[in-house]
Structures are given as C-alpha cells and as structure tokens.
TrEMBL record:
Domain of life the protein comes from: Eukaryota
SUPFAM superfamilies: Cytochrome P450
Cofactor(s), names only, from the UniProt record: heme
Alphabetical UniProt keywords: Heme, Iron, Metal-binding, Monooxygenase, Oxidoreductase
Keyword Phosphoprotein: no
Family: Belongs to the cytochrome P450 family.
InterPro entries membership: Cyt_P450, Cyt_P450_CS, Cyt_P450_E_grp-I, Cyt_P450_sf
Pfam families noted in UniProt: p450
The protein, known as: Cytochrome P450, family 1, subfamily D, polypeptide 1
One GO process term, biological-process aspect: hormone biosynthetic process
GO molecular function, one term: steroid 17-alpha-monooxygenase activity
Residues holding heme: 191
Length: 245
C-alpha cells in the first residue's frame, strides 16, 4: 500500500504517511515496544486517506458547480482574490482571514449542499436524557446535519444560495452564524480533519480561481439536486475553463 503512494526517504518526514512508515522501519512488531501494530498502521492510513479524499473532492465539485451557476458570486470572489493576493504570488493560508466573502462562500457550500448529510453512527455508553428526551444505553445515535443546515428557524430562506448571509453589515464574517453550519459533526468524535479541510478547500479554490475563469457551457442546464452515496455528489456537469488576463 505504501509504495503505491510514495517513495520513502529516510530521515525526511513530509507528512503523516512518512512518519508511520519510519515507525515501521524502526521497530520490531513483536518485541513489546511497538506503539502501533502493522495492522493499526495500515488501517490508520486507510482511515485518513478515506476520510480526507472523497470529502474534499466532493466539496470542490459542489464549489465549481455553484461558481458556474452563480457567476456574480464568482466575480465577487475574484475581486477579493485580486485585492488581497494580486497576480504576483499564489494564495496562501494566511490570506484566509482577510477574505471574508470567499470564506462565506465556502460556509454556504457546506450548508447548502450539506453533502455529508449524516454523521457517523455512534452508540450511547450510558442512559442519558437530552433536551428532555430519554435515550437508553446502547442506542445507535447520529446527527441529521442536512436538517440542521436547512432549519428555517436559523436560516430563513434556507433553500437560497447566499454567501452574504454569513457577513455582517460591515462585511466581516458573522461568527454566531458560521458556527451553526454543521458538516464536520460535533462532540469528542467530530471530524479530526476539520481545520485542515477548511484550509484545503480555501487554498484549492483560490489557487484555481487566481489564474482560471470557469463558466457554464452553452445550453447546459445546471441541476443542484444530488446523487446519494457516502457523500452526496452533484450530478455530472461540464465546465468551460479559460485563463484570466
Ligand atoms: C470538507 C471535508 C470533510 C468533511 C465534510 C468531513 C466530515 C466528517 C464527518 C461528518 C465525520 C463524522 C463525525 C461524527 O460522527 O460526529 C468525520 C470524521 C472524521 N474525519 Fe472528516 N471530513 C472532512 C475532511 C476530513 C479530512 C481532510 C480528514 C483527514 C485529514 C478527515 C478525517 C476524519 C477522521 C479521522 C474522522 C473520524 C473521527 C473519529 O471517529 O474520532 N476528515 N468527518
């Protein structure tokens, strides 16, 4: 499995995979000093790649669809990229805090598409009463994130795609509202890659839009309904890409 993805270089730790392989090389599995068995290492890699790839790819697919469906929104993001980044360097993580509209767009993609509609099923370890409801021990529980993200009491017109809903009148992010978007679960078992995933989405999207203009192809009807699966994906669509002057 390891050789498919990387060539391992001794004493060069580029990421978690390198760290795990180095750990394999340095220890004997059965001498009692191993922190992780071979099986645990292999399954850790599968977990991280499995949880971290499809979720980001699907988020980017939805983002591209919204960007070509709503060219005015794309124009506002391009404006922000040009003001904050310019053409002489690539977007970086640190730009994120100065680009509230782009951040608001990503929050609205998470909320509107809600493409991880349910959290992973968990199990209660004890009897518990939550908001007046009794839940017995050993009950399977999970959250309907889609419902939270489309609750009209919180969002008003929840079906409309409006990044502006997350901005205050002065153009800053409204943290009271952004924290109500639920796509990474909640509690001690919420997504391990939460912060990293937000950064990835920001850097991938801004890097693409920094140099490329994307638009719908003539005559193509854009459908925002989703296909069901582990993550909900948009229906296949085509995009026209050109370089930005
Ligand atoms: C936009 C991208 C992502 C979304 C929407 C997402 C969503 C989720 C959700 C809903 C859960 C289940 C939480 C729960 O059951 O309460 C989860 C768990 C998890 N995610 Fe993510 N995820 C994303 C990206 C990532 C990335 C990039 C990584 C790794 C680098 C990752 C690693 C994990 C792991 C390891 C768990 C299991 C945590 C546990 O059981 O304690 N995820 N994710």
């Amino acid at each position: 499995i390891f050789k498919i993805f990387f060539v391992f270089v001794q004493n060069c730790t580029r990421d978690i995979t390198d760290a795990l392989i180095a750990m394999c090389e340095d220890r004997q599995e059965d001498d009692g000093t191993a922190m992780l068995s071979n099986s645990q290492i292999i399954h850790s890699v599968i977990d991280i790649f499995g949880a971290g790839f499809d979720t980001i790819i699907t988020g980017l697919q939805w983002s591209l669809l919204y960007l070509i469906k709503f060219p005015d929104i794309q124009a506002k993001i391009l404006q922000e990229i040009d003001n904050q980044v310019g053409m002489n360097r690539l977007p970086q993580f640190k730009d994120k805090s100065n680009m509230p509209y782009t951040e608001a767009f990503i929050y609205e993609v998470f909320r509107h598409a809600s493409y991880v509609p349910f959290t992973i099923p968990h199990c209660t370890t004890d009897n518990i009463t939550l908001n007046g409801d009794f839940i017995p021990k050993d009950t399977c529980v999970f959250i309907n994130q889609y419902q939270v993200n489309h609750d009209m009491d919180i969002w008003g017109d929840a079906e409309a795609f409006q990044p502006e809903r997350f901005l205050t009148l002065s153009g800053h992010l409204n943290k009271n509202l952004t924290e109500k978007v639920m796509i990474f679960g909640i509690g001690v078992r919420h997504c391990l890659g939460d912060s990293f995933a937000r950064l990835e989405m920001f850097v991938f999207l801004t890097t693409l839009l920094h140099r490329l203009h994307i638009e719908n192809v003539p005559e193509q009807e854009l459908d925002l309904s989703s296909m069901f699966g582990l993550t909900m994906k948009p229906r296949p669509f085509r995009i026209k890409i050109s370089t930005r002057n």
